[in-house]
Amino acid sequence: MRTMELARAAHKAVHHYARLTPGENVLVLADSIVDRGLVDAFASAAYALGGETQVMTFETRPEINREPPKAVAAALAAADLVLDLIQQYIIHTSAYWRAREGGTRILCGTGITEEMLIRLVGGVDYDELVQLGARLMSVFSAGEECRVETGEGDVLTMTLTGRPQVMRDGLLDGPGDLDYMPGAQLSSAPIEESINGAIVIDGSAYPPVGAVGAAIRVFYRDGRVVDVQGGPAAARWHAWLTRFDDPKMFCVAHISIGMNPAARHTGNILEDERVAGCFVLGHGSQMPHFKGKLGRASSHTDLVAVAPRIPWTGTRAGWWTARLSPRVGSSASEGRARPRSRTASPVRPAPGPAPGRAASASAYRRSNSHITPCNRR
What SS3 state is found at 253? Predict the structure, then answer.
């Protein structure tokens, strides 16, 4: 164990990210699968910085977003600051939402390991990362449409106009705030009915899969998954969505772009979502700060495309591509691409059945054509 490096990274997270002030009521929260050394590092950092520090551990749930025990829910609501290390995350539960509504601010490190904390928090210049985020936000703000190109010609398009951009740099700003360690991501909720086309997912699908192995191909119409193709990972992901019997689980809740220059694709969704230049599609429950129309769903899942091509278009921006350097202390540059029409090229229709497509995907598309559109609550 790299004890000294771990202690320094935990101190940085609690002091610089969570912005603990002396006398605050601090809860270090974990489930039973989390390494005790990681829990102790955060508790020690919070105590050293003057926090009234408590540690609470509960049994690991079989899957994400299960309501925690009542005692945990009460502790969440009573804390000024929660350092959340839970492996099977609870960020979309009622207990979590109520705590935030009551003013509890939460720094969430779900799934983080000691090695990740040292490398992705302790080893990254966060001042530079925040500056990078500001530059990328200017691209988001100037553009009207996002076009994501993956694979051998698959295109997914969506409109961002009127929706806020959410910077997840890991820094807590005030009561009720939620952010994540490690940073960083830039996120938004596209206009639901504007999301159309196809995307190749070559990174992760979690839950329930993790690293996908063979790529998954996902098709969208008006913000909703209408077809899934691929091997075992595609079938497993589609079956997981279907079992909730909740139409909202097939709807896009947010998109994100990863920004952490030290992150790499490992199969751990916390890190995979932050790989510099990756593209994330979240489905299911939608946080209120996105100002979308989806709201809460039965659960949440994320898809990660590792290295997509993302040109931007808008009345002021023209077409742009944001490039992220893969080194620690990254930089961003915006380069004007060949002029194009402001209207995206039409997305080709989804092909017919292909070998290895996910079981029951076509049946889902036929039998669920009545599902409430994603732009309705």
Answer: strand
Distances (CA, A) of 238 to 26, 187, 228, 233, 325: 39, 24, 7, 9, 34
Q: Which CATH superfamily is domain 3-122 in?
A: Thermophilic metalloprotease (M29) (3.40.1830.10)
∠ CA 66-89-358, rounded to 5°: 80
- The residue type at 140: F
What tens digit of pLDDT does each residue of 163-211 get?
999 999 899 999 999 999 998 899 999 999 999 999 999 999 999 999 9
Residue 84's nearest CA partner among 30, 45, 48 is: 30
Alpha-carbon dihedral of residues 328, 283, 63, 82, nearest 10 degrees? 60
Tokens 């090695």 — which residue? 115
The Cα 196–Cα 5 span in angstroms is: 45
| pLDDT at residue 291, rounded to an integer | 92
DSSP letter for each residue of 338-362: S---SSPPPPPPPPS--TTPPTTHH
Query: 227: exposed, middle or buried (C-beta count within 10 Å: 0-12, 13-18, 19+)?
Result: buried
Query: Do residues 54 and 110 touch, judged by C-beta distance below 8 A?
Result: no
Q: What is the rounded CA–CA span in Å between residue 144 and residue 155?
A: 16
Starting from the edge strand earliest in sequence, which strands make up the sheet with 81-84, in order? 52-58, 25-31, 81-84, 105-108, 178-180
How many other C-beta atoms can be found within 10 angstroms of the C-beta atom of residue 288? 11
d(CA 182, CA 13) in angstroms, rounded, equals 9
Point out the least confidently predicted range of 41-55, 65-79, 119-133: 119-133
SS3 (DSSP) at 216 = strand
Biggest CA–CA distance in the chain, Å, is: 62
In the structure, how many helices (H) and strands (E) does the chain have?
9, 20
Domain ranges of the chain: 3-122, 126-367
Distance, CA of 225 to CA of 253 (rounded, Å): 12
User: For the whole model, what pTM was predicted?
Assistant: 0.81
Give the count of beta carbons closer than 10 Å to the beta carbon of residue 249. Answer: 22
Give the other-Cβ count within 10 Å of 257's Cβ.
Answer: 27
pLDDT tens figures, 7-35: 999 999 999 999 999 999 999 999 999 99
